[in-house]
Amino acid sequence: MKWVEPISCQVDLQQGLMHNASGHYQKRLSDLAGLYADDAAFKAELSHGGDRVVYEVTEWRPPARSGDMIFGLTRMSPGKIGEEFYLTRGHIHAVADRPEIYYGQRGEGLMLLESPDGETRIVEINAQTVCYVPPYWIHRSVNTGSDEFVMLFSYPADAGQDYDIIAHSGGMRRRIMADGTGGWKQVDNAAWQARSAQTVAKLLDQQSAGVTL
Ligand SMILES: O=P(O)(O)OC[C@H]1O[C@H](O)[C@H](O)[C@@H](O)[C@@H]1O
Ligand SMILES: [Fe+2]
Fold first, then answer.
1. What is the CATH number of the domain that holds 61?
2. 22 in a structural domain
3. Could you say which ligand is closest to the alpha carbon of residue 89?
4. Ligand 1: which of 153, 154, 155, 172 to mutate, judged by most atoms within 8 Å of the beta carbon?
5. Angle (CA) 146 171 161, round 5°
């Protein structure tokens, strides 16, 4: 029998990376085109500040997916586009009933959550905060601090990510903006469109319909 080998991964808090990872990817500002409210500020930042890396993920993925776990580290740079804090693309799990755990390591930020039928929640995350993202919630991380924001995450290996759900509704329902006194506030996204009852039902039915991974 060839068992999957146990491993350990060292979290490098300073670099915001996990050593001994099996995968690593970086997202640059240009990868986030269309996500921010202030498109002029986005374009100005791209041309003046350059197309810099805004977040990166080091992760460990098991050789087989079913029933196993993926874990890793996300490092987000601090910054704003206009008044809006730096964010990740955000997604719902492709197998929508799969949950996720985040564990704050460094910096300050929050998890912006949205249910399929448009309820919204915010979970603030600092070092040592564990954030539970329940099944079916769309989730996006936001760095609301002035330093890097680093979180460990873990989720079922068969979960996958669906990024289109956010694009199809004109973005997430809320945006996280500077409040003018050094903090953050949530603001409605005027472009947001509710998902139809049929779309919501489809997500809930997915499990019984049997999703091909
Ligand atoms: O995938 P994004 O929405 O860009 O977020 C970046 C990453 O953030 C966390 O690390 C999640 O656990 C990953 O699943 C996700 O891929
Ligand atoms: Fe996720």
1. 2.60.120.10
2. yes
3. 1
4. 153
5. 85
